[in-house]
Amino acid sequence: MKNLDKASIKIVLPNEVATIIRTLTEHGYEAYAVGGCVRDSILGRKPGDWDITTSALPEQVKALFRRTIDTGIQHGTVTVMFGKNGFEVTTYRIDGAYEDARHPKNVEFTSRLEEDLKRRDFTINAMAYNDDSGVVDVFDGLGDLDRGIIRCVGDAYDRFGEDALRILRAVRFSAQLGFEIEKKTSEAITQLASTLEKISKERIHTELNKMLKSAHPEYFLRADELGIMQVIMPEYHALSREQKLFGGKMAVGCACELPEKYASMLLFAGECEGTECTGIHQNASEVCRQVLRGLKLDNATIDTAALLVRQCGLELTEDESRLRHIMYEVGPQSIIRVLDFRLTYERTREDEEQIEKVIKVQELCQKIIERGDCLSLKELKITGRDLLELGIPAGKRLGEVLNALLMAVLDDQSLNTAKELADRARHF
Ligand code: ATP
Ligand code: MG
């Protein structure tokens, strides 16, 4: 983008946003779309949400709209509802001193838009817009959008000192937009990266996820160079440069598929790169578990991620009997996912032969599943109770017999009849 001309920028506001701004204006208040939605609109990106900033106090906003929700009334935010859609309307405010690099101790309302823009993190996030005034840009956010630069509003040390999450937001925006981080801003990041320790794992996780799903997940490397990963994911920091690079590329491939499993992928990818992808990646899987636990992810997610990492090196065979055994070990519900993950891995390595092999095996698994082959005890045509009736005593022995029967059926599906299995059971 070149030479953004403030006067010529026209943003098409959604009807609801235009209505909110018009209503407030007609009652003598100021109101603007602000922040991310202005930035994204100017860049031609679709805004995720539309925030409105106004000189009206929360009670005054509430008096003007039929349905509102007190989202964060103490911080000046009221959500105005139109059908199912909500729009956050926040009173111009000055953030007070921060108590813990996270929360402002108190906020103070102001009647000046400029004060409100000043509290925002980056110049590109500190612009406001309405149809009457056009773009209000006090800190040359337009210039920075034009140059492709993330720059703090005001003194970078102060701003990161107030709220350490901004450190991660800077890298996340740079990954989403493909922007560079301005020199002073990046120096301050390096200096203050260790203060990210104060930020909750959940918030860190949200930012990391956004980075992974961005246009440039490989910017994890930049986060690492700036000293951020060392603080928030030391396991990743410990990998070699090649491993980290590979992890970044792997993340690109995985982003759509399994967005929430980023850490495992990066680690797995790192751990596997350079060691042939065969055998079971027990170690990578353990590291992955540790990292995801550290990020406070839920157990189901951690289990799935660890499984993917552990099983990703599975044998790629086109022998159906052997494949059924593998499906049983991995879990029939998980096999396709594991193979998807493997496919991403091989694509990252650009190994055409292996890519084809994975696709073939995947098709074969699909066929086996659709055919309804017996892949677990519950599809076996004999039960524990049947075995008891045949005189096999309850306990460990019974389990062993059932298992042996299943192994035989995995080898040869034609054995899966009540009669055949009963005959075999008697021989044990
Ligand atoms: P996205 O919604 O794509 O994550 P965004 O810029 O809209 O990006 P939000 O978190 O929705 O980000 O916040 C809306 C606006 O609020 C930002 O554009 C910025 O002006 C301001 N803001 C959000 N978080 C902070 C923060 N930690 N410090 C300062 N200003 C912030
Ligand atoms: Mg937003």
How much helical structure, as a percent, in the residues?
40-55%
Side by side, the strands of the main sheet go 3-4-5-2-1-8-9
Given the helix and strand composition, which structural class is it?
alpha+beta
**Backbone shape:** elongated
Q: What summary fits the major beta sheet?
A: 7 strands, mixed
How does this model look, in words?
With 428 residues, the protein is an alpha+beta fold. The strands form three sheets. It has a seven-stranded mixed sheet. α6 crosses α8 and α18 runs antiparallel to α19. The chain binds adenosine-5'-triphosphate and magnesium ion. Magnesium ion binds next to loops.
SSE order and pairing:
Layout: H1 15-26, E1 31-34, H2 36-43, E2 51-54, H3 58-64, E3 68-72, E4 77-82, E5 85-91, E6 93-95, E7 107-109, H4 113-118, E8 127-130, E9 134-137, H5 141-147, E10 149-150, H6 156-162, H7 165-177, E11 180-181, H8 183-192, H9 201-212, H10 220-225, H11 229-232, H12 234-237, H13 241-254, H14 262-272, H15 282-294, H16 299-311, H17 320-330, H18 335-349, H19 352-371, H20 384-389, H21 396-411, H22 418-427
Parallel strand pairs: 2-5, 10-11
Antiparallel strand pairs: 1-2, 1-8, 3-4, 4-5, 6-7, 8-9
Helix pairs in contact: 6-8, 7-9, 13-14, 13-18, 14-15, 15-16, 17-19, 18-19
The structure holds adenosine-5'-triphosphate (ATP) and magnesium ion (MG).
Magnesium ion is lined by residues 36, 48-49.
